[in-house]
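Students often ask why inverse folding is considered easier than folding. One informal answer: many sequences map to the same fold, so there is more than one right answer. In these notes we will look at a single instance of the problem. The structure comes first.
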């Protein structure tokens, strides 16, 4: 009987730390995204759809300065550079479409897989033949004519480069209200 109690006490010493380690690994696997050393975030809209960006805010903490956005969908127009920032999990946008006299607003969840994709963006080549190996991630927010919101990750700010990748990380439909 004494041997069984000693055996159970010894097992207890090993089981508690193992459970603690398992829980820590589980929480680490379920945790939010990590920090990015450097990233550029920008906005774009469909060609010919001039809008006025009122706000683009990531994770309720940081954003892209607002202003006129005239081009181009899936390209980083007005941008902001970010250092040592957590890869965002959501973006909230609001813009004015003067042609319809509507204010669009909405929020989109950003796929956490984007954090892993940032680390593996491939090099690209300019039309001049210059190869860019020091790739900077571009997080691009697209605002469509009828309220579409798209979030992309790219290795270049715009089209026209050989080897450009464009990963869609989220999409949604904005709501709208009349501009007063």
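Output (designed amino acids):
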């Amino acid at each position: 009987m004494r041997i069984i109690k000693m055996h159970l006490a010894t097992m207890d010493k090993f089981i508690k730390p193992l459970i603690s380690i398992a829980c820590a690994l589980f929480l680490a696997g379920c945790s939010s995204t990590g920090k990015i050393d450097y990233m550029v975030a920008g906005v774009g809209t469909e060609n010919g759809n001039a809008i006025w960006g009122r706000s683009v805010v990531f994770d309720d903490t940081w954003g892209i300065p607002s202003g006129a956005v005239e081009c181009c969908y899936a390209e980083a127009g007005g941008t902001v550079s970010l250092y040592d920032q957590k890869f965002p999990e959501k973006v909230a946008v609001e813009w004015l479409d003067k042609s319809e006299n509507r204010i669009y607003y909405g929020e989109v969840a950003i796929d956490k897989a984007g954090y892993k994709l940032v680390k593996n963006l491939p090099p690209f080549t300019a039309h001049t033949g210059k190869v860019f190996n020091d790739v900077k991630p571009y997080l691009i927010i697209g605002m469509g004519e009828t309220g579409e919101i798209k979030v992309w990750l790219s290795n270049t700010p715009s089209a026209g480069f050989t080897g450009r990748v464009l990963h869609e990380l989220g999409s949604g439909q904005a709501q709208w209200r009349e501009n007063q």
